[in-house]
Each structure stands twice: as C-alpha cells, then as structure tokens.
Amino acid sequence: MPFYCYMVECVDGTYYTGWSTDPDRRVKVHNAGRGARYTSQRRPVRLVYVETVESLSAALKRERRLKTYDHRQKKKLVDEYQDQSCRSGTVEMEQ
How many angstroms separate the CA atoms of 37 and 34, rounded? Predict the structure, then answer.
C-alpha cells in the first residue's frame, strides 16, 4: 500500500501538511469539516502537493520534517512541484 505526504492550501493562504493512503479522499474529508481542526476553520482547501513515500514510518518522518518549514519554504516546494507536474503532464492540479 502506498503512503503519501501531502499539503493543502487553505482559503486564507496557509498550508496544512499531512499524510494519507489516499490524498484525494483526505482532501474531501478536510473540505467536509471532518479533517484536522486547523483545516476545518480554513475551508475550502485544495491539494497542492503530493509526495509518495515507501512506508508509514517514512510518511510520518516526512510529514514531521515538512511541518518545520516556514511559509516561504512550503510555497517554494509547492511551486516547484506544480512546475514539475505541469512540465511532465503527470499530475492535474485542482484549481
């Protein structure tokens, strides 16, 4: 089973970082107000970054690391991810 670290952008421009086995489903949960307390107050959210990792342990470690990033670092990571995804045509981002 694959694991993913993901970031969503909240309506106020902040980022929330988490992990999931199904990021698309998890975003729906966040937008339904049943996700993290942080996102329930900042809906709607949109998925802006997804990273595949090899295990739950790796997902938790990566999530912890990403949560230490400041807003500027997260934005840079998201921008690079979206640029790469657009160039490769492998990921369609929800707008």
Answer: 8
Round to whole Å and give the CA distance between 48 and 42: 15
Tell me: the pLDDT tens digits for 35-83? 999 999 999 999 999 999 999 999 999 999 999 999 999 999 999 999 8
- pLDDT tens digits, one per residue of 8-40: 999 999 999 999 999 999 999 999 999 999 999
Residue with tokens 């807003």: 71
Fold of 3-88: GIY-YIG endonuclease (3.40.1440)
Burial (0-12, 13-18, 19+ Cβ within 10 Å), 30: buried
Task: Put the strands of the sheet holding 3-9 in their side by side order.
Answer: 15-20, 3-9, 46-53
Q: What pTM does this model have?
A: 0.87
* Extents of the domains making up the chain: 3-88
